[in-house]
Design brief:
154 residues
Length: 154
C-alpha cells in the first residue's frame, strides 16, 4: 500500500471499527426487540413475541437486546461481545447445524455472521466513540490492528 493510503487507513481504523460496532450492535438489538416486544415484524418475522421465560428463545432475545445495546454504545463492550458471540455459536449449533453443514443451506447465516462479528469486537475492542472510554478512560482504549512496519535502515 502507498504511504498516504496506509497513513489514512491507520488513522481511520478506530473510527471504522466504531461504526462497525455500532451497526452490529444495532442490528443485534433489533433482533432482541422484535422477539421481546413484537416490533419490527415480531418474533421470527411472524409477529407476536417469544413467551416469557421460554428456553432458549426468550433468553436469547434478552441477550440480543442487552448485548446489542451495550455493544452499540460501547459500554462493557468486550464482555457483551463475548457473551453475544457465545449465544450465537449456541444458536448456530443447536438450531441450524443439524439440518445441513453449510450456513447457506441451514438458514444459519445470521447466527454465524453475528458470532464472528462479536468475536472480532471482543478481540479488537470497541474502537473510538465508546462509553467505555468515557467511564474508564484509556484502560479500554480503541485498539485497531496496525500494519506491520519494517524498521528503517537510516
Amino acid at each position: 500500500m502507498s504511504a498516504p493510503l496506509t497513513s489514512f487507513t491507520q488513522r481511520s481504523a478506530p473510527h471504522a471499527l466504531a461504526l462497525f460496532r455500532i451497526v452490529v450492535g444495532l442490528l443485534f438489538a433489533s433482533h432482541g426487540a422484535s422477539s421481546l416486544f413484537g416490533v419490527l415484524g415480531g418474533a421470527m418475522g411472524q409477529g407476536g413475541t417469544v413467551p416469557t421465560g421460554a428456553w432458549p428463545g426468550w433468553y436469547a432475545a434478552v441477550i440480543q437486546l442487552a448485548g446489542g445495546i451495550l455493544v452499540m454504545f460501547g459500554l462493557g463492550t468486550r464482555a457483551a461481545a463475548f457473551i453475544s458471540s457465545g449465544s450465537m455459536a449456541y444458536a448456530y449449533f443447536s438450531a441450524h447445524q443439524g439440518s445441513a453443514l453449510w450456513p447457506i443451506q441451514n438458514g444459519g447465516e445470521a447466527s454465524a455472521m453475528f458470532c464472528w462479528a462479536f468475536l472480532l469486537i471482543f478481540f479488537i475492542g470497541p474502537g473510538s466513540w465508546a462509553l467505555d472510554r468515557v467511564f474508564f478512560g484509556e484502560r479500554e482504549q480503541a485498539q485497531a490492528p496496525t500494519a506491520h512496519q519494517e524498521p528503517s535502515a537510516a
